[in-house]
Amino acid sequence: MARALYIHWPFCLAKCPYCDFNSHVRSGVDTAAWEAALLADLRFEAELAAGEPLDSIFFGGGTPSLMPPELVARLLAEAELLWGFAPDIEITLEANPSSVETGKFGALAQAGVNRVSLGVQALDDDVLRFLGRLHDANEALVALETAQRHFKRVSFDLIYARPGQSEAQWYRELARALDFGTGHLSLYQLTIEPQTRFATDVRSAIITPLDDERAADLYIQTQEMTQAAGLPAYEISNHARPGEESRHNLTYWRYRDYVGIGPGAHGRRGAMATLRHKKPENYLAAVARQGHGLQDERALGKSEQASEALLMGLRLAEGVDLAALGSRFGFALDHLIDADKLALHQRLGLAQREGDRVIVTPAGMPLLDALLADLVPADLVAA
Fold first, then answer.
1. Of 27, 72, 248, 307, which one has the fewest beta carbons inside 10 Å?
2. Per CATH, the architecture of 302-382 is what?
3. What is the pLDDT of residues 190-223, one digit of tens each?
4. So what CATH class is 4-253?
5. Is the pTM of this model over 0.85?
6. Exposure pattern of 304-319 as b/e (b: 16+ CB <10 Å)?
7. What is the C-alpha separation between 75 and 69, in angstroms, rounded?
8. What contacts 341, CB < 8 A, 6 or more positions away?
9. Going edge to edge, which strands form the sheet with 233-235?
């Protein structure tokens, strides 16, 4: 049974040039229609995946802070009715730090949100303009202060390894970010994703991405600074004080079941993978036609589940327990990890094995994609 719920709000005021998430710009949003559709989708999933109280809810996007707080409250009330809430449930909402959205923080907290994740992205106005953000650095600072007054837990995002960024520049920016005292930081290296404006700019030589060696140096610098500040990395891009890790995201990385509703939302229900219609208009039409937003639902074989669990779990500082995975999916330990490749990467200091647990070391994390391709047997991924 699922103990985590993801709700996708697909709308943004503008499309950022680096973003490949399911986000859409619309001149107007029919809130009543969206409330009815999301409630119907929620009830459909509850019939299949309820039974235990929810430990976490995550409003993602898009820009969920554009949602009316009354809609957030209505969805939370319905989720509690359908599933029940664990006493210490974590309810996160992603927010942009514009003055309009910051003004909703009090009402969102009253609706039940107890953790906010702010899309700050940078603390410099020129960089924010480069990233296509609609807020400035001062608005970000005000949003952080306001969020810390209203919510028990606050996280914010920064994007680094930007074109031309130096270690000195990132040191100053990250040091300033750490001084705000939040219990969680998400620090993402800029990735040029296909079908984004930045991808077009790279092809046109308008921007030149930072080279891999300099990006790796910035990654190591990030680990050293966050560790010293008491926010060690618990996942390749996420840092937290002990006990302030994102419980919801750990559900994904530890490969546990979760319900996903709203346009483009993925879910894992038992051995089933679920996917909602991506385009907002198609999602609304699907709910009106069939009572839910599902576009696809397919059974996952044991090999696919095991490979997904490995690919997700090795992102974590805690790594993966091969014995637990083998028992869960019915595989011998030597079928889950390429032992020869693991031994090689152990000698190189990129991975380690502690009993049945395999861990990618901090030195290996900048090379994670290549390590995953090496460590997870190809026949397991392809099965």
1. 27
2. Orthogonal Bundle (1.10)
3. 999 999 999 999 999 999 999 999 999 999 999 9
4. alpha beta
5. yes
6. bbbbbbbbbbbbbbeb
7. 10
8. 374, 375
9. 233-235, 238-240, 184-189, 153-160, 115-121, 85-95, 54-61, 4-9, 259-261
